[in-house]
Specification:
The structure holds two protein chains of two kinds.
Chain A lengths: L1 E10 L3 H8 L2 H7 L3 E8 L2 E10 L2 E15 L3 E10 L2 E15 L2 E13 L1 H37 L1
Antiparallel strand pairs in A: 1-7, 2-3, 3-4, 4-5, 5-6, 6-7
Chain B lengths: L19 H5 L15 E7 L5 E7 L1 H4 L4 E6 H7 L21 E2 L5 E7 L2 H8 L3 E6 L6 H5 L14 E9 L2 H7 L2 E9 L11 E7 L4 E6 L6 H9 L6 E4 L14 H14 L3 E4 L2 H7 L7 E9 L5 E13 L24 E10 L13 H19 L3 H8 L8 E2 L5 E2 L4 H12 L1 H13 L3 E13 L5 H5 L10 E7 L5 E4 L9 H13 L7 E3 L17 H28 L7 E3 L2 E3 L5 E2 L1 H10 L12 E7 L18 E13 L7 E10 L6 H21 L30 E4 L22 H12 L9 E2 L3 H18 L1
Parallel strand pairs in B: 1-12, 8-29, 10-11, 14-15, 20-21, 27-28
Antiparallel strand pairs in B: 1-5, 2-4, 2-6, 3-5, 7-15, 8-13, 9-10, 9-12, 13-14, 16-17, 18-26, 19-20, 19-25, 22-23, 23-24, 26-27
Helix pairs in contact in B: 7-8, 10-19, 15-16, 18-19
Classes of the chains: A alpha+beta, B alpha+beta.
């Protein structure tokens, strides 16, 4: 089944800081829900291991993330593909970073995902809300990352 | 015609169903109850794509896990076994228990992981890495039919498994002569029987005995033959234990791929292997979905309501592999005109492969969808002409005095009294009162409708559709057998040579043998020898056991009684004709008398007192050929099943026009299945069948998303009728004996289900008649009803 993913979030970071964070595997590992590891295969091409639970189905995912068509520090395209006991997923989204003021940047994202396997059949009725929840978790973690950074810097 | 025994003290009597006691007490013995020492367990790695090449399977991580016994791939299995049986002549549609090289539906089994427990096997299955290259796929039957569609089996060349047109009678002439025509399309959604007990099997190979023991939750004709063939081992190396209770089936417990897989694993690993499907495995990969069928019907009729001719195209979506399921287009040929006088028929049967779960036999073997199409036709003709729906059926019914009646497709209906059954039902219903109730509900602002359906249940399961649809198939028998034995102490034991999935064979056989031998059925033991000790048989499919097993048991008991009479005549030195058999005692002229114990003593111990030529012991075997099963089909015409039960449904449905949740307010069925052997069994079948039909009409569907993923693979999404949806049902009984069976019995294993979907659909249509709405697909979903009513109201508002 297909999932439409779009939205925008304000992050307390400059455009350059946000760009760097989104290109840093360490930060992404911390922020992507369920992400256990992220290994660079080639530049801008990573192998990821994830542990996720959707409805009654839980399991591990292995996948790849690639960043393409980069135009630092404003936009890039991210493709994700994964497979695991839960099912399969592929997705592609465009990120755009728009400076809002000196310390804030708006992250706009729009894309489409496709989910197959067990998770599609069993989790269909909640998949939309689960994906929204996972995105929210991602941004919560990202905000936390910048908050911690500021604290560290301030200390 | 067979010489008929008169029903007497046990047949048709209000006697308990013997099997019920152990089931009610929770003491059934199901496959999962078996405790087999040393057993290992299987979990499956399932395909996540509807179609893909399997590029690589990496099981190294799984194999390294503690408790893992081994992993099997399709390549290894295909190299060592033969493909599973194909009904049609489609040699390039090859099917193995695991996908070989390519997956063809989401959920298809790719690898089997064997471990010390099911939990360990499941954990290890998660660690098997399969690399796929996705392929194009097709889900829709119409699309699959197109020549440029992606073939599910490239080697087969197209998706068409079967494309056969039959013309019986002067169809074109009748169409030309008829005063009116109309056409419509209806679709029967993909549903099934979904038993509470999923499929399960345990297999054990004994290398010293060279025998494979199999215990399975099975309802499958020629089951042990199919296992032996696939494994390339002798037929007498497979021992199926028939004394396993089966927790529901109604056709779908065919488990052949599971059984061959488990049998192979048992031989490979040298230990007993058990596979019990979980619910998701059962629903998406148990290969047990029912027919999904599009009907295009053209009907020619006169203004008096008489239907002259019918053209029907039935397009069936068989799923990813062929199996036996496409024959479900063939069986309804034996009742293609329903209970009606229709002089000519054109029938175009098409079966296609798609990237959906494999279709299997379901209750009625295609008859319920066909009955739904025929009954929709009658309703549409009635509406077109403005004739009452019951009246139009009466005008077209075959009349009682016309039986035995041969329909255009070559099948002879044995007997029937349709007008009388309808009269009895209408009297029980009090139709004017029911109509008044409907109108009262309407006045309250509800949608309310009455539906009717009249249909047949062909029974006595022969397999004539095999040679009819596949000319290489020469099957003209579908026998069933029974042995009745009197032991040295005088006790009677009878045999059943297949499993029971709730049909009550033990009650059937003991009742019938008790009837013939005039002894208390409760004193007769009924056993199920394993397949190596069994007589030939074909399992309880095709609504056949009352006719076939009941017939074989009665004939064996009669044979035994004949032996007893010969022994007695010889012992008493009188003619057999002068003797009377009375409850096991033989009475002759002048007060001569032999007790049962005397006969047993002579037969078992006193060879010198036996008549010349009579073998010692008291035992009789009967292998019954299907009544009317005499020859192969000729020129596209076949005698399908021997007996034809009749049912007439009247149902009142009501629902709120916005919520559209249908509530069945009244359900009455008239049922004529000839002589009833056990009324409780027939009643149970009918009530269960109606519940099943409510599911097909309103709730149950295996729905796929556009990506080929099954969306309804648990009971959260696949809706089964529960006590909330199933109403109290009133059954009106009528008995028109069949002239072809020992007691006049006909089948009832599919009763209720064969007409309920049509009747409920009719009621739903009646409920929205004011807006002229039609529902062209089953199940009729609440959302569809609500949307259509809303659209009609919107339209009314605009045009007002």
């Amino acid at each position: 089944m297909k999932l439409d993913i779009r939205g925008e979030e304000e992050i307390a970071a400059t455009q350059a800081e946000l760009w760097d964070a989104l290109n840093d595997p360490e930060v992404l590992t911390k922020c992507i829900p369920g992400c256990r590891s992220m290994t660079e295969l080639d530049p801008d091409h990573y192998k990821v291991e994830m542990q996720l639970k959707v409805a009654a189905v839980g399991g591990s995912f292995e996948g790849e993330i690639a960043l393409k068509d980069k135009e630092p520090p404003t936009t890039c395209r991210i493709t994700v593909s994964g497979a695991g006991s839960l099912g399969t997923g592929t997705g592609e989204a465009q990120f755009t970073l728009v400076p809002k003021d000196e310390a804030t940047t708006t992250l706009q994202y729009a894309g489409e995902g496709e989910v197959g396997g067990l998770v599609a059949g069993v989790g269909q009725r909640i998949l939309g809300s689960v994906s929204k929840h996972l995105i929210k978790q991602f941004f919560t973690a990202l905000r936390k990352h910048f908050a911690e950074k500021t604290e560290t810097a301030g200390a | 015609m067979t010489e008929q025994l008169r029903p007497g003290r046990f047949v048709s009597a209000n006697r308990r169903v013997r099997e019920d006691r152990r089931f009610v007490a929770g003491k059934g013995r199901f496959v999962a109850d078996l405790d087999i020492p040393g057993v290992a367990h299987v979990a499956l790695v399932a395909s996540q794509h509807p179609a893909a090449f399997i590029e690589e399977i990496d099981a190294s991580e799984a194999l390294a896990m503690p408790g893992v016994v081994g992993v099997l791939t399709g390549d290894e299995l295909a190299a060592s076994t033969d493909p599973l049986m194909n009904g049609l002549d489609t040699p390039h549609v090859r099917r193995f228990p695991l996908a070989v090289g390519q997956v063809r539906y989401a959920g298809e089994w790719v690898c089997a992981v064997v471990a010390e427990s099911r939990a360990l096997a499941e954990d290890a299955a998660e660690k098997v890495r399969v690399r796929y290259t996705k392929l194009g796929f097709v889900l829709d039957a119409e699309k699959a039919l197109q020549t440029d569609s992606t073939p599910v089996h490239p080697a087969h060349g197209s998706n068409v498994l079967l494309d056969k047109t039959f013309v019986w009678g002067e169809v074109e002439r009748d169409f030309e002569k008829a005063e009116e025509h109309l056409s419509f399309r209806v679709t029967w959604g993909r549903n099934s029987t979904v038993p509470i007990e999923t499929f399960g099997v345990v297999a054990k190979w004994d290398p010293w005995e060279q025998v494979l023991d199999v215990w399975a939750s099975i309802q499958m004709p020629k089951y042990s033959d199919q296992i032996a063939r696939a494994l390339r081992i002798p037929g007498n190396a497979v021992r199926v234990h028939y004394d396993v209770d089966v927790g529901g089936s109604y056709g779908v417990k065919r488990g052949i791929k599971h059984s061959v897989l488990v049998a192979y694993l048992a031989r490979k690993f040298g230990r007993p292997i058990r596979l019990i499907e979980d619910r998701i495995e059962n629903m998406r990969a148990g290969d047990a979905h029912g027919p999904e069928r599009i009907f295009d019907v053209d009907v020619a009729f006169d203004r008096d309501g008489r239907v002259r001719s019918m053209k029907m195209r039935a397009l069936d979506n068989a799923g990813a592999y062929a199996g036996r399921a496409p024959f479900q287009l063939g069986k309804p040929i034996g009742a293609i005109v329903g209970p009606y006088l229709i002089e000519s028929v054109q029938y175009h049967a098409v079966s296609v492969t798609t990237n959906k779960t494999v279709e299997e036999a379901v209750r009625g073997f295609g008859q319920s969808p066909t009955n739904y199409a025929i009954e929709t036709m009658m309703d549409r003709v009635a509406a077109h002409l403005g004739i009452d729906r019951i009246e139009i059926r009466r005008r077209n019914f075959i009349r009682h005095e016309q039986f035995p009646y041969t329909i255009p497709s070559g099948s002879t209906y044995d007997s029937g009294d349709y007008h009388v059954v309808v009269d009895k039902v209408l009297e029980a219903v009090d139709l004017p009162a029911l109509e008044a109730e409907r109108d009262r509900l309407r006045a309250e602002g509800l949608c309310a409708g009455i539906g009717v359906a009249a249909c047949l249940e062909p029974s006595g399961g022969n397999s004539s559709f095999e040679p009819l649809l596949n000319e290489k198939n020469r099957t003209s028998t579908w026998m069933e057998s029974c042995r009745v034995n009197v032991d040295g102490l005088g006790f009677v034991t009878a045999t059943v040579h297949t499993t029971s999935s709730g049909q009550g064979h033990e009650t059937l056989v003991s009742t019938v043998v008790g009837e013939v031998l005039e002894i208390d059925p409760d004193k007769i033991r009924v056993v199920r020898p394993d397949s190596l000790g069994s007589l030939p048989g074909n399992s309880p499919v095709g609504s056949r056991m009352a006719i076939m097993l009941g017939g074989a048991a009665a004939k064996a008991a009669e044979d035994l009684k004949g032996q007893i009479m010969r022994i007695a005549a010889h012992a008493l030195k009188v003619s057999e004709a002068s003797l009377v058999y009375r409850e096991g005692t033989i009475e002759g002229p002048d007060g001569l008398k032999l007790q049962w114990s005397d006969i047993v003593d002579i037969a078992h111990r006193r060879f010198h007192d036996l008549p010349p030529g009579v073998a010692p012991g008291l035992t009789a075997t009967h292998i019954l050929q299907v009544p009317t099963g005499r020859e192969l089909p000729k020129e596209g015409r076949a005698q399908m099943y021997p007996c034809h039960s009749f049912e007439f449904h009247v149902v009142l449905v009501a629902f709120d026009p916005v919520l559209a949740k249908p509530e069945i307010r009244r359900y009455v069925i008239g049922h004529d299945c000839g002589t009833v052997i056990n009324p409780h069994i027939v009643k149970g079948m009918t009530l269960g069948g109606i519940a099943h039909g409510i599911g097909a009409a309103l709730l149950e569907e295996f729905a796929y998303d556009e990506g080929g993923q099954l969306m309804t693979q648990s009971f959260l999404d696949y809706l089964m009728p529960s006590s909330h949806e199933v109403p109290a049902v009133e059954i009106v009984k009528h008995v028109t004996p069949s002239p072809y069976t020992v007691f006049g019995q006909k089948g009832s294993g599919e009763s209720g289900y064969l007409g309920a979907p049509a009747a409920i659909s009719g009621a739903m249509h009646d409920a929205v008649r004011a807006w002229g709405i039609t529902f062209d697909k089953l199940p009729i979903r609440m959302s569809t009803v609500s949307d259509k009513i809303a659209a009609a109201r919107e339209h009314d508002r605009k045009t007002a």
